């Protein structure tokens, strides 16, 4: 049985992109409906939390973290 790797990408000045087979659950254990690839809000201004709706663009959110080399 092959296990597909999940990728989580922190986009510069934007969302967190999740690609792969994952379960996204809330604090009570309820499952959110997701697609094989989706974006999570990082700026806190999305009207569709926990998903990104592009609000980071209008509020001027900036963040571009980098992993240690």
UniProtKB/TrEMBL annotation:
Entry annotated with the keyword Ligase: no
Chain ranges of the Iron-binding zinc finger CDGSH type domain: 17-62
Keywords: 2Fe-2S, Iron, Iron-sulfur, Metal-binding
InterPro entries to which the protein is assigned, alphabetical: FeS-contain_CDGSH-typ, MitoNEET_CISD
Highest taxon above the source species: Bacteria
A GO cellular-component term linked to this record: cytoplasm
GO MF entries: 2 iron, 2 sulfur cluster binding; metal ion binding
Protein name in UniProt: Iron-binding zinc finger CDGSH type domain-containing protein
Source organism per UniProt: Insulibacter thermoxylanivorax
């Amino acid at each position: 049985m092959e296990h597909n790797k999940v990728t989580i990408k922190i986009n510069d000045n934007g969302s967190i992109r999740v690609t792969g087979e994952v379960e996204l659950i809330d604090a009570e254990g309820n499952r959110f409906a997701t697609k094989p690839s989706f974006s999570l809000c990082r700026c806190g201004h999305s009207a569709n939390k926990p998903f990104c709706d592009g609000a980071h663009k209008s509020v001027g959110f900036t963040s571009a973290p980098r992993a240690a080399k």
